[in-house]
Amino acid sequence: MIEFKHVSKVYKDVRALDDVSFTVEPGGVTGFLGPNGAGKSTALRVLVGLSRATSGSATVLGRPYGELDRPAFQVGTLLDAGAQHPGRTGREILTLGAMTLGLPRSRVDEVLRLVGLTAAEGGRRFGGYSLGMRQRLGIAHALLGEPRAVILDEPANGLDPQGIRWLRGLLRELAASGCAVLLSSHLLHEVEQVADQVVLIARGRVLARGTVAELRRDGRTLEQVFLDLTTGADRSAGLDAALSADGSAA
């Protein structure tokens, strides 16, 4: 399980996160949705120990990330698909990761197949990869250790329609295997197709959370719900009251 408990993060006079609380259960996909600058990436950085919360706590499998034993076997992360040496091939990048984890080289071939990169593509230098290929390689790297939780930041960026369909299937397979999957994105429509739970965030605050069905109970799309919440239009009536009644409101 992934859990945020009252997490706030302040940079000087800027409150990037404001009392963020939600959980990601095993066996499901939770969409963490919001516009650019909403605080999604800051929250993920706090979760994996790259940034320290001003207050509150964020844990993976019941412990802070930095206290996990062999964390790559517990948590797979993709926070920046471009954070690799441009002169190395995709296969070399994965091989170095496998060697660091003490895994056999056969695992490299397994994850390449899993993310749909051919042998020829794996042999290309990272600097020549398209954004979509970089995303696939980053996901492959995250899955090397067959983790129990997966954290992905904007993994659909750069994927074509076929790649997005593949990503949906992969996320559902991971959830079906018992993984807790946290998917951060600003692409509301795409997340609506795959998420079990949704957390809507803007300006560092959780606006609403619940299942897609709960958030769409009045017939609106997830995009319409989000726009209404963030622009202040139609906030009174059914949605806020209904979500508060069942504990799904922020």
From TrEMBL:
GO molecular function annotation: ATP binding; ATP hydrolysis activity
Keyword Transport (UniProt): yes
Gene3D superfamilies referenced in this protein's UniProt entry, alphabetically: P-loop containing nucleotide triphosphate hydrolases (3.40.50.300)
Highest rank taxon of the organism: Bacteria
Keywords recorded for this protein, A-Z: ATP-binding, Nucleotide-binding, Transport
Domain ABC transporter: 2-228
Transmembrane segments: none
Residues of the signal peptide: none
PROSITE patterns in alphabetical order: ABC_TRANSPORTER_2
A Pfam entry, by short name: ABC_tran
Family: Belongs to the ABC transporter superfamily.
PANTHER family assigned to the protein according to its UniProt record, in alphabetical order: ABC TRANSPORTER, ATP-BINDING PROTEIN
Annotated protein name in UniProt: ABC-2 type transport system ATP-binding protein
